[in-house]
Amino acid sequence: NPHPPNLMFPIIILALWGILMTSSICLRQTDLKALIAYSSVSHMGLVAAAIIVQTPWGLTGAMTLMVAHGLTSSALFALANTNYERTHTRTLLLVRGLQLAFPLMSTWWLLTNLTNMAMPPTINLLGELFIISTLFNWSTPTIIITGMGTLITATYSLYMFLMTQRGSISTQFQLLPPTHTREHLNLTLHLLPLGLLIMKPALVSGL
Is the pTM of this model over 0.85? Predict the structure, then answer.
């Protein structure tokens, strides 16, 4: 039976509602790590809905997005920690303009945020497309919720990048320690698999 039992309808509705709610919470966050954490909850709403629908496409998409988001979210937390170690604050209003101090780290921020909003050629896009197609096939109106979720995700991802990297650096940060090779290696090992797995997504899709 390709359709979930009626008992599962409320859970799917809650998962879809959760996508919108947690994405919206991200738009008003002042704490960098809280923003990333709520972003994870939002993506897991997609995964939960896809698993409950119980179709091959849904399970493939859920598996792919879980692996993709595991790497993406980990990279975002790693980046947030590099900021925290130097500035000792997680408040977005204070941690701004860091592109001037750490231009290479700013590149990692941009790439990771684009990955978080499912930029091709990462497997995040593959996972989200599978899940959105599955939910659309199950019930057409879900495209409104998943579409809005994708739009809000793009908004808060760009908001996070602009708040932390652009603008003038706060005057309280006079001497910031430079970034280390281990930090750049760490982020390379997060983002490289996300870009390369699209060549053989069967490795993570559970097919």
Answer: yes
